[in-house]
Amino acid sequence: MPQTFHHNDEPRAEEGQRGYTPYLYIPYNGTDTGNRPLGPNIKFWGSPHIAVSHTDQYGNVVPGQPITITARVFNGGLKPALPFITVQFFVFNSSLAFTTANSLFTATIQPTKQIPSKGYIEVSSPTPWIPEPVENGHPCIVVQCSTPEEGTDSLKFPFFAALDRHVAQRNMTVANPVAGQKLILHAGNPFHQSLPCTLRVSSLLIHGKFEELRRTDVGTLMTLLANVQPGAPGNLLEQRLEVRTKDISGEGLDVRLEQIEHQDVPGDQGEVITLDRYLQQRMQSDPNFDPQSLGKVLGEFVLEPRTANNLLIAVAPTDLGGADYIVHHFTQVVENCPIGGYTLVVPPMNF
Questions:
Q1: In order of start, what are the domains of the chain with their CATH numbers?
Q2: What's the domain of life for this entry (predicted)?
Q3: Structure pTM?
Q4: How many CA atoms are closer than 13 Å to the CA of 198, on its beta-carbon side?
Q5: With 127 labelled, which of 66, 221, 288, 349 sits at a CA distance of 20 to 30 A?
Q6: What pLDDT, in 10s, does the model give residues 33-67?
């Protein structure tokens, strides 16, 4: 069975209704109703509406075990979405910005059920994904949906979850709190021009009444932590758990970019949007965006077309002496605008 979805995280679909056609979307968090593009400070890559089966004690997938990927596809329109829907499932190497060349798994299904107005259906991949043991890496999942009933308002920007409500990502893993973590993140170039990139990291300290949720559904807990934003709790589940956050990005945590390895990217990357258009659409949602909110700079590098860098990131064990969690958000930034990200959740030592 897939990892449990927590019903308190469901968006209220009536807020996203858009007229007398279907309005499909896969939420990036518990309150998303499909508005795009997203502001450049929004961590859109930890969707709680993508679930996987067979996770370990930390909520990570288990190498060698057949994995079923399940996603919730919502309809915020006044008209039911008939069974003309296509749902695509992709698995990538652990990535910041995606290119189609590094896809590890692809599956497509057309569900036989319609999606009611202001409702959703759960759709599972028709074939299982079997993760291979990957040293220091955890794959990323992308799910996207489309239907001809939406006409020109259907899927326009494949793999660009920040621009297209039909696309959702799950780019996250959980560290061993005792051993620490080494991540190899794939920094891709989805555009056909040179990209001077910056890798940034922001870190949150998160406290709450997580004991019950940790015992019953560790996967839901880790997904919740990956989606917590600084400030007041953002949904009913966070409020019930009395979640509190503190930005600790500047407190000298031992997070390092240890190595950059260059590689060529074979094949057609399938560009569907220019960099200028991407930046314009992201920034129009928040013209006063401050890139410093993405945290401190870990490193800088340049990506030419059809190239990528593998970034080796080391996160030392951190003993805070309590029951608090640390969440690190890594972001690939181009011209002060994010083009991709990855989240690492670090449990307390007594997890």
A1: 7-172 (2.60.40.10), 181-346 (no CATH)
A2: Bacteria
A3: 0.92
A4: 14
A5: 221
A6: 999 999 998 999 999 999 998 888 888 888 889 99
